[in-house]
Amino acid sequence: MEKGKKILSWITILVCLAAGIFHLSVGVTAMSTMTLRTWHWMFIVVLAFIAFPAKKGGKLLRWYDIIFLLVGMATAAYMIWQWPSRGQLLAAKSPVLQIADKVVGVLVILVVLEATRRTTGLAMAITAAVALVYLFWLGPYMPGIFVHKGYSFDRVMPYMMFTTEGLFGISLGTCASFIVLFVLFGAFLQVTGGGKFFIESAYSLSGRFRGGPAKTAVISSALMGCISGSPIANVVTTGTFTIPLMKNAGYEGETACSIEAVASTGGMLMPPMMGAAAFIMAQYLNIPYGSVCVAAIVPAVMYYAVLFIIVDKEAAKKRILGLPKSELPSLKKALISRGFLLVPLIVLIVCLFNNYSPQKTVFWSLVILIAVSFIKKETRLTPKSFLEAFRSGITGVVSVATACAAAGLVVMAISMTGLGVRFTSSIVTISGGNPFVALIFTMLASLVLGMGLPAAAVYIVVACVAAPALINMGFSPIASHMFVFYFGIISTITPPVALTAYAAAGLSEGAKAAKVGLRAFLYAIVAFILPFVWMYEPSFLLNAPILQIVINLVIAAFSLFFVASGTVGWLFNRINPGGRAFCYVLAASMLVPFLTVNIVGFAIGIITLVLSKLKMLKFLDSRKEKLLNEQEHNAAV
Questions:
Q1: N- to C-terminal Cα distance for the chain?
Q2: Least reliable range by pLDDT among 145-149, 223-227, 318-322
Q3: For residues 375 and 369, what is the distance between their CA atoms, to the nearest angstrom?
Q4: CA 613 – CA 596 distance, rounded (Å)
Q5: Other CB atoms within 10 A of residue 92 CB
Q6: CA pair distance 447, 491, nearest whole angstrom
Q7: pLDDT of residue 237
Q8: Distance between CA 24 and CA 43 in Å, rounded?
């Protein structure tokens, strides 16, 4: 039994190594789109059935796994073999070819659904299955905008397997071209000690301040987002360290878990590596990935700024102090021991923001990372760590690839039936032509789908049907797609199914998942506000004149303080529910798309802070705060 596990483990490593080398070669060689995508799918199919058990925690490579593996490889080989000469074969109108397409097409669908189920979850597989049933059979019997004439296997199967509009559409293509390379880079950065460097650096910088452990969680999770781009992976990586630290410092278990969940979710919003959906967005919009990063900078910084202020106010509320410098890791030592690992990351960021090819950027950044890792013994890549980087990187992308493949089937159904066009017009109709109502519907669609689907899948589905409607209403394409992108991500911390929050709760004994999810939702409140703001104010996506950007960002930055104050219930001391509402109203006045209202709100905010600091706004104080003040006064007397 043990010998069999070792053999299977080595097979997995060798497949990952082959897949990694193949994808890295794309960075320095020319390769046709379909060659890359079909071979990418071959590697994904193999790993899905040898590295992911049919049941969670079950045995690997049972008899049914072998059947799926062989069928998956055979169907992938059929597509690799057929597509280059597809035009000549179609011209021959061979009946054998038509039968083969039907049989292979059905088997491909079964492989995609099962691979998605075991790597991503049942929800995505069911979504794709329902879309296909709707495409083949249910269309003629559906009501209203959902009706269509129905499609035969003869028409669908070749379209699905041999065009860039079906299985090998933009979503799977983006995974093959970009996502796998960035995940691989993150895996190498992790095994060389980049993750440990980020955590030690964050702790040394923030540990001495009020609420230091929580601030460490915020900073380290933002930095780790540069490596993983996965909220749950971010939680598991940093949370095992930061959650116990926060609890030991005095934070409640639920509070510590929710802070970590929100901080880890923000990793997908933080450039340069923003997860699969951001790469797909760049392909949909036909713009450089660096342009997506530029648009994402301000919202991501605001997201983390609010969370940082929230943890500071929570620390003030609970009187949680920092740790002595002697108990903290040394930043100087961290920089000396691993600081050079920042060099490839800086190269990566600079190249992306200068619109260099993402494939070549990652390839050369990885070459630089491998080279600099040999500077120190503790960061040096060994044969074992080298293979581990390939294994963790490639297997880490399998779930993304299968979700993209299943999403490709959904998009194919939407495209062939014309549902996307009809749904777009229906959003306009249902909203009565009101853009704000259309935004609300789009937000709800993203959040509901996010209860069961990965963020990338949510983005793909909603972007196909809702983003065009928003664009037709006059919103900019980048703003519309960013709107869908944001809500697809924060759905992972939105109750009732807040997967990232539940993952964080699992790292803390006694923490109740439901409470963690609710508190995470409150701490991430700014993420529900910002998308509506940038839809009406392009300066938040750095798409406006410099003076306009500066004025709006200064006012918005000031408003964040009041958002955090209302969330925690702490201005410079405890405030009552009325005071919290007042903070939210004041913040809203500085974020609405009316400059006059923004300036008035800004002025009132300054006056509020001055009077509150001077303890002249007694009507905002909570009863508990008044009681504490009286006790302190009596003690002094």
A1: 76
A2: 223-227
A3: 10
A4: 26
A5: 9
A6: 5
A7: 67
A8: 14
Rounded Cα gap, residues 188 and 184, in angstroms: 6
Residues 481, 296: Cα–Cα separation, whole Å: 11
Res 384 pLDDT > 60: yes
pLDDT tens, residue by residue, 113-133: 999 999 888 888 998 999 999
Secondary structure class of 570 (helix, strand, coil):
strand
Neighbours of 63 (CB within 10 A): 6
Average confidence (pLDDT) over 104-119:
95
* Rounded Cα gap, residues 163 and 154, in angstroms: 14
**What Rg value do the Cα atoms of the chain yield, rounded?**
26
d(CA 468, CA 534): 17
As a whole number of angstroms, the distance between CA 302 and CA 111 comes to 42
- pLDDT of 553 over the 60 cut: yes
Give the tens place of pLDDT for each residue, 4-62: 788 899 999 999 999 999 999 987 787 888 999 999 999 999 999 999 999 877 888 89
What digits encode the pLDDT tens for the residues 329-371?
A: 888 888 888 889 989 988 888 887 787 888 888 899 999 999 9
List b or e across 463-499, with b for residues whose CB sees 16 or more CB atoms inside 10 angstroms.
bbbbbbbbbebebbbbbbbbbbbbbbbbbbbbbebbb
- Six-digit token string for 11: 């097979």
Q: How far is CA 313 from CA 262, 574, 626, in A?
A: 16, 10, 18
Nearest CA-CA partner of 625 in 564, 568, 565, 576: 576
Distance CA 293, CA 224 (A): 16
CA distance 525 to 615: 28
Q: What is the 3-state secondary structure (H, E, C) of 574-616?
A: EECHHHHHHHHHHHHHCCCCCHHHHHHHHHHHHHHHHHHHCCC
**Structure tokens of 392?**
């963790």
Please tell me whether the overall predicted TM-score, pTM, comes out greater than 0.85 for this model: no
Q: Please, are residues 534 and 299 in contact by the beta-carbon 8 Å criterion?
A: yes
Tokens 């996506």 belong to residue: 541
